[in-house]
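Review form for a predicted model. The reviewer records the input and the model, then writes brief findings.
Reviewer: anonymous (R2)
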Amino acid sequence: MNKYSSVKNHFIFLVASFLFWLSIFIYMPILSPYVELLGGTYTFIGIVLSSYGLMQFLFRVPIGVVSDFIKRRKPFIILGMLMAMISSLMFALTDSLGWALVSRSFAGIAAATWVAFTVLYSSYFRDEEVHQAMSRISFVVVLAQLIGMSFSGYIVDEWGWRAPFWIGGVLGVIGMILSLFIYEPREIVKQTSIQIKDLLLVMREPLLLKVSLLSILAHSIIFTTMFGFIPVYALQIGLQERDLSMIVFSFMIPHALATLFMGKVLVPILGKWKSLTLAFFCSAVFTLITPIIKEKELLCIVQALNGFSLGLLFPLLLGMSIESIADDKRATAMGTYQAIYAIGMFVGPYLAGMLNSAMGIHAGFYFAGVLGIVATTLILLWNYKERLSVHYSVYKLRKRLKTFRN
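Model under review:
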């Protein structure tokens, strides 16, 4: 770690990050049923869910570019906390479909500032420790998701549909106050200004674009399933609101554990690309079989397996997105990566909502499962082309050596 990355700095940053995501995700499992309760169709539910990703798509690259240009991350972190607080309180104070859409859009703007969080935290570490930084912060995110989503069903059952939104607002207030004490190293401010041409080169970096495309597919799957229509499906097959906590626990605990398992166990054994292939394929299978499940226990088991599979993906993709990028351009790279994968956050649930309205709720899960197969196929094709390229290069080298000897 760098000399300025004290235990206190880490603690404040990680707690603030935890509160940030907890305020956003504490109402996530009940959002789809709540919008349905307000009178929203599956299509409108998909629009509300997709607005979260659309705002990230629109705002993440500008935030990353401006952050790199002014050499500051902390102001955007404070802004994100403010938007998360406003989003939750707006949900709590209104009860119409229009305001639900606006409120969720504000949450998307808040999430767009996550680019500043990740880049600032990575500056607490040496370059060779970037994956460690991403694993830690990914674990905090998943832990916040786990706690928030696990108790939302219970909170609704005890205190009503508005309670999770009020709690999210209070958490946002606390997080915003704490964010004022986050430490930002002076070294970031002293860096020289980057040129626009450098930013364009970052955005066209081949590995970044490949990883971003895979992340689109991964986020489409998770925002169509657990963060989308799984709660609605669970209620349709006879589960109660309080049962949603069990479904969320089943998904999120393995999801959280997988973020730690990936970097320490799976990647050293299989390598990054084989790990991604395995994780995407398993997620595709578990998503495809979800619509045939009618029992709570079996649904919990399948969600646990899918949660673990998806948990393997996100920290690895996150680390790969910036591992080859220079420090002074990482916010731009991260902003590009997060903006591109935000396409999955809004296109995935939006298309799933339309398919569910036209053909029933099963259609959205089949759609998400096919996306997992597409991701698996892409990785296999890229690896095949890379092997062909290597073999061709070796062949040309041997031919030149043979010609030289003759």
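Findings: The CA atoms of residues 53 and 345 lie 4 Å apart.
Further findings: Confidence is low (pLDDT under 50) at residues 188-194.
Recommendation: see findings above.
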